[in-house]
Design goal:
This protein has five helices and five strands. 33% of the residues lie in helices and 20% in strands. It starts with 9 loop residues before the first strand and ends with a helix. Bound molecules: cytidine-5'-triphosphate. Keywords: Nucleotidyltransferase, Transferase.
């Protein structure tokens, strides 16, 4: 991990990153390439239960440990509420917010404080599809 400098361009992104897969890796690599430091908000278990109606397969602590161990990631934090994006962006001094294009347009309100970039999702893979595939073959 490198310390932030005043010149460092910080990128922030958010996600559950449950049952970590190559689509997650690709979005993290592409987000990191947009700046000097990548900070990742990993969504809390409670938030996922509210958002997706199920508990993640891996706990928030496990998901944070996996994401934090990735070479392009400088820091992780727990995203406890979807309503706190603005606070998280400011708190981490982010210059760029990166989201998958499944969220296209939904975060444009933050263009007053940072750049907002939507990246195309990696086709044909998702945590939900993986869970369904594994359950069907079990
Ligand atoms: N992502 C991606 N390509 C995929 C799947 C996810 O680029 N094929 C990105 C999402 O756009 C998001 C981040 O990875 O920026 C975390 O997404 P997350 O919701 O945790 O993963 P999903 O696989 O989409 O999970 P689910 O099926 O539970 O919605």
């Amino acid at each position: 991990m490198s310390a932030p400098t005043s010149e460092a361009r910080t990128v922030i992104t958010f996600g559950t990153f449950d049952v970590f897969h190559v689509g997650h890796l690709r979005v993290i690599e592409r987000a990191a390439a947009l700046g000097d430091r990548l900070v990742v908000g990993v969504s809390a278990d409670e938030l996922n239960i509210r958002k997706k109606g199920r508990e993640p397969v891996f706990s928030e602590g496990e998901r944070m440990a996996i994401v934090a161990a990735l070479k392009p990631v400088h820091a992780v934090f727990l995203e406890e509420s979807l309503e706190l994006k603005r606070e998280y962006i400011l708190e981490h001094g982010a210059h760029v917010l990166v989201m998958g294009d499944d969220w296209e347009g939904r975060f444009d309100e933050f263009r007053d404080i940072c750049d907002v970039v939507y990246l195309p999702r990696t086709p044909a893979i998702s945590t939900t599809a993986l869970i369904e595939k594994i359950s069907a073959t079990g």
